[in-house]
Amino acid sequence: MFDKALVILQSARSLLGDYQPVDGRERDFRERMLALLASKTPTSRRQFAPGHLTASGFVLSPEADAVLLIFHKKLGIWVQPGGHIEPDDPTLEAAARREVVEEVGLELAGSTDGRLFDVDVHAIPARKDEPAHEHFDVRFCFRALTRAFTASDEVVAARWAPLAQIEQLTSDESVLRAVRKLAGWSTK
Fold it and tell me: Are the CB atoms for 60 and 21 separated by under 8 Å?
């Protein structure tokens, strides 16, 4: 029998095993993610100790001069589109693409465009129905075909943020660190 959960875990192990972190902090994040993959349910949003894998998409504008951010209602900060892995997601990249489409309805360039470019582990505060835990976020870079998007009902606000002015919109180091990488890529 075909086990979708096993396929995504094998894909995640391969993807993270091949990923080359840019510094010690990211190397630690990657090692923690690889260790998490040995747990019983690393993609389950109900695994809280220490947390679970998530997938997100940093979407560059067609001109590669801006990134699309959404205002996260529960956290109260501007972040990239992304979220939990669903049982039908065949890969982490597919999960990130699905989240981008669900949250901002944005058409993305072809399937070869998405690439793993960053990994991050960040704390999620406790809420009434969930204890504090961590998101082990696997981040992909996508290029939008257009700047036109439609924010879904689950998104409070969304906007294109110029890469050179990102600090004016957010102070979240997790986002800033990833955008600094994108800014370096877009000038090459």
Answer: no
What are the backbone dihedrals phi and psi of residue 13, each rounded to the nearest 5 degrees, phi first? -60, -45
pTM over 0.85: yes
- With a cut of 80, say whether residue 152 has pLDDT above it: yes
CA 179 to CA 175: how far, in whole Å? Answer: 6
Alpha-carbon gap, residue 102 to 21, rounded angstroms = 29
Instruction: Give the C-alpha separation, 138 to 124, whole Å.
Output: 15
Q: Walk me through the domains of the chain, giving residue ranges and CATH numbers.
A: 4-186 (3.90.79.10)
Predicted pLDDT of residue 188: 44
pLDDT number for residue 111:
54
Strands (E) across 27-183 are located at: 51-60, 66-72, 77-79, 82-84, 115-124, 133-143, 158-162
Q: What is the pLDDT of residues 168-185, one digit of tens each?
A: 988 889 999 999 998 875
Computed over its alpha carbons, how large is the radius of gyration of the chain? 16
